[in-house]
Fold:
Amino acid sequence: MNAYKHVVYWHDTEKVTVEDPLRESVDCDVCIVGGGFTGLWTAYFLKEAEPALDIRIVEANHSGYGASGRADGFVTPTIGKDIQELVKEFGLQRALDASKAVGRSILEIGRFARRNRVDAEYEANDYLMVATNAGQLKRLEHDRALAEQMGAAQAEILGREESQAIIGSPAALGSMRTGGALVNPFKLARGIARVVREKGVTIYDNSPCLRVEPGARPTVVTAGGQVKADKVVLATNVHMDAFPQFRRKVIPIWTYAMVSEPLTDAQLGRVNWEGREGLVEAKSLLTCARFTHDNRIMFAGGPALYYYGRDKRQRNMNRPEAYREIQREFLRFFPMWSDVEFSYAYGGTADIVRDFAPHFGRLDGGNILYGYGYCGNGIAATHTGGKVLRDLTLGKDTDYSRLLFVDDERRKPPASFPPDPFLFVGTRAMTRLMDWEDSRA
Structure:
């Protein structure tokens, strides 16, 4: 039996220097609650636009500790759940505008890393959406048709032999290549944090927000102090449910991943995967695989679980049944790697919203802003979201402030989630239904 530790692999790839917590009352132009990708990119783009702004970030742990530093590292153009849901909810043109914006973010993240000497292990390898049954092949055809309607370059559905020549999994019956990249998400988050500090942004680590007091100048209160600001940006991802206005707008869904020891040359030689593309199965519930920079295999999938009471505690990392399911799925894709040893097994939460697309906007009064709801597809979308929040914060009417992300008069407010126990029962039933639909041939 494999011996693995319940530690996020990415967190072991870079030593963290923790910033001092907030221990006083301070005043600033913009206070951002949350030091993950959304908060960091917002700070970066605000400083680019208005270098004189005094910006403070209050972070509950340290930058990259939460969802940003636990992501699988796929930098993709996907917004929310998938393109089909996006077009269904917002129409073809608005989905196209948002997809183009997020597509640009993929390239801009790479340029940011190069220009700022951020060792994010950025690899522009694309990724393959892989079908393993007839139903998933139909889904690929639907996605391809939608992409063509949106004016994308003609996407090609690859057959079994072509797919297995790119990623040598016998499970692949067909695939579709999509532009994208891979990163080490923790190193990217830590790198953005360094860059914004160099631009004059103050980050307070170990300073969880207790509450935000509204007013002409809102106040962010922590255990050690408070920040009074002209504008406050709420960027806490799945923890948005701590604020009363969002309590029933977002729920935490746990997903799980495992990372192997570095593969030997002999193990690498058993599988055709020279392009190091990311692999994503063409289904609703996550299954994906990729190489890390040091030739480990990261494989994510298994159950997508809601725990009663919105439980986000780290004890949920220790779920042996989830890791057994991941290992079964891994061997379904790569039976030739039965001797691969996994050394990391961990989980994290995705911020799921009812309409499966990000939500950005202003609360009543206009000086408290928010952004959340990436549904597990946030690395590129948070970069775009940082521009959205920049323009909303500065009060500018731009292409970004008019994206479908924004809760404006054109967007129908989604229904609220029910309270527990109805939420617990409903989410478990829904994930079982999605799993059944995904498995149908």
About this structure: DSSP finds ten helices and 18 strands in the chain. The CA atoms of residues 252 and 311 lie 8 Å apart.
